[in-house]
Amino acid sequence: MKASDFIAEFLKKKGIDHVFELSGGMITHILDSLNQNTDIKIITMHHEQGAAFAAEGSARINNLPGIALATSGPGATNLLTGMGSCYFDSTPAIFITGQVNRHEQKGERSIRQLGFQETDIVAMAKPISKAAYLVNNPDNLENILEEAFKIACEGRPGPVLIDIPMDVQRAQIEPSGLQPDLNIDVQIDEQVLANLKNDIKSAKRPLILAGRGVKASKSQDDFTKFVNYTQIPVITTLLGLDTISFDDPLRAGFIGSYGNRWANIAFGECDLLIVLGSRLDIRQTGADTKFIENRKIYHVDCEAGEINNRVLGCTPILSDLSVFLNKSLKSFENESFVKSQSWLDRINELRALWPDTKELNPTGINPNVFMHALSKPGSKAKAYLADVGSHQMWSAQSLEIRDGQHFLTSGGMGAMGFSLPAAIGACIALGNEPVAVLVGDGCMQINIQELQTIVRNNLKVKIIVLNNRTLGMIRQFQDSYFESRYQSTYWGYSAPDFAKVAEAYGISSKTIDSQDEVENAVSWLWNDSNADKPQLLQVMVDPHTNTYPKIAFGKPITEMEPFSKPIEMEGT
Which CATH superfamily, name and number, covers 361-548? Predict the structure, then answer.
């Protein structure tokens, strides 16, 4: 059969029902085969970066590899930012690029390029992918596709690139019907589980730190059982916000560089820390990790290099999180764990002392107050997608995310422009259920062209642009370290009226600039008459509104601005 027909049927057999792409000459065979031979929905984006982020958004919802396709040269290179985002945030994805015909490849010649748009995308992709392949032999295609799916999903998930020359796509092959290898059961030392059980029972101030690994390992149900069984309060990373419901009495808040102040203080006071699905990176712990290392820490991770990397003295449990949780629940099933009410009371005392809505006193709309108002009636939103910047942290600090809702953002890559195209992928993966985009004016201008993709596909995407007419997080950095010289953030920067832009695309819009308009605007966004269509709400925020609390860089994460001052310039 024709190789491109095999690719299309292979994707269908793997459960893929939609792909994202921007067409180009070198992928026309694959697109035609998808169209002619399957009912896979082909979502045409307006930029390959948008296709990559859409694939990531889809994969984070359904835990199947997201699929993005691009042509050779600039099409392929435009995928790289989204590929890196998948790599750093443990998202399974398959990126398929077209390459020039084999006879047009430069090979070992001492030249830069032979074929038009010939680009060595495999070499570029290797540092930010789990694997990258150039399929120059059609007979290897089946094996490579099977291996790519296996690699993308196993262990710590991530992206794989497959670069396929055009003449390989149209070659005739004879598939053998290979099946992927079975998963290998990982053994966990029973003594370590016994020690963990005893440490939980003896701890007076235990905490679980939940990260992206909970969702990446498809372990949400077992994680919830583990929390309810052990009765340990949960702090979350940025990417772990949706692992525990906002109204769960064991939710102890969001930690990190811009985390809830009460949660960071509780982090500093705990006597037992169980790390599930988190790498303990600098945004979660701050630069000074010594304050964390003076207690018992169990760190579960599927990659040995992540344990005792930045935070030392951890008891390592090298395991996929799903395996650990399953074995722990079985090991603990005859045990009785008692909730530490005094510890919960202390956490709630800290929460009352340092509420997120009182960290700022801005002119006009308070972003943290707005986030609560947005999410109280926003149960119709199946996912919130935050971009990167001040609005991302206001969202993380104050959104009320409940059971069944997702929170998606770009963590490790921190890619501006993520949320709008990722929302397209998430919305499609959810069967066109409503999703909400939270995006700043700077981020919105990076992939604004995807508004047309939303309209063309009749997607229920609700877009909230927090427009402070500046690149706010960097502007705040300039206040701290550059004597308020706002080059390229406030000086030499501008943004359009996004409500007018939305109307040009055929999206209904509204703009608010005062706190007393919030309630009506939120009602407009979520009322039943608007449920089936995209909308854009532009929320004007004072340009000098800061993001607090913020870690005082160089100090322990329990010491946060504006009450504590940094002792050195931020390195990240």
Answer: Thiamin diphosphate (ThDP)-binding fold, Pyr/PP domains (3.40.50.970)
Rounded to whole angstroms, the Cα distance separating 528 from 223 reads 34
b/e code 384-409 from CB counts within 10 Å (16+ = b): bbbbbbbbbbbbbbbbbbbeebbbbb
Q: For the chain, list residues with pLDDT below 70.
A: 178-186, 378, 568-572
Tokens of 367: 């972003």
What pLDDT was estimated at residue 376?
A: 84
The domain 3-169: what is its CATH number? Answer: 3.40.50.970
The number of residues in the chain equals 572
Q: Find all residues with CB under 8 Å of 491, minimum gap 6, and list them.
A: 485
Ranges in the chain annotated CATH 3.40.50.1220 = 190-353
The bridge status of strand 461-467 relative to strand 234-236 is unpaired
User: Where do the DSSP E strands lie in 409-562?
Assistant: 435-440, 461-467, 508-512, 535-540, 550-551, 560-561
Terminal Cα distance for the chain, rounded: 51
Q: State the pTM of this model.
A: 0.95
31 sits in which H/E element: helix 28-37
Cα–Cα distance, 176 to 88 (Å, whole number): 34
8 Å CB contact between 97 and 70: yes
Distance (Å, whole) CA 226 – CA 329? 7
- For the domain spanning 190-353, the CATH number is 3.40.50.1220
DSSP 246: T
pLDDT of residue 184: 53
Q: What local confidence, expressed as pLDDT, does residue 568 receive? A: 67
- Give the whole-angstrom CA distance, residue 450 versus residue 427: 13
Calculate the alpha carbon distances from 197 to 277, 294, 307 in Å: 19, 20, 20
What whole-number distance in Å separates Cα of residue 163 and Cα of residue 269? 50
Q: Which residues pair with 550 in a beta bridge?
A: 561
Distance, CA of 55 to CA of 64 (rounded, Å) = 10
- Contact assessment for residue 472 and residue 440, using Cβ atoms and an 8 Å cutoff: yes
The residue ranges of DSSP E strands in 35-175, in sequence order, are 41-44, 66-70, 93-99, 131-134, 159-165
Beta strands in 404-530 (DSSP E): 406-408, 435-440, 461-467, 508-512
The residues of the chain that CATH labels 3.40.50.970 are: 3-169, 361-548
> For the packed helices 367-375 and 518-526, what is the interaxial angle rounded to 10 degrees?
40
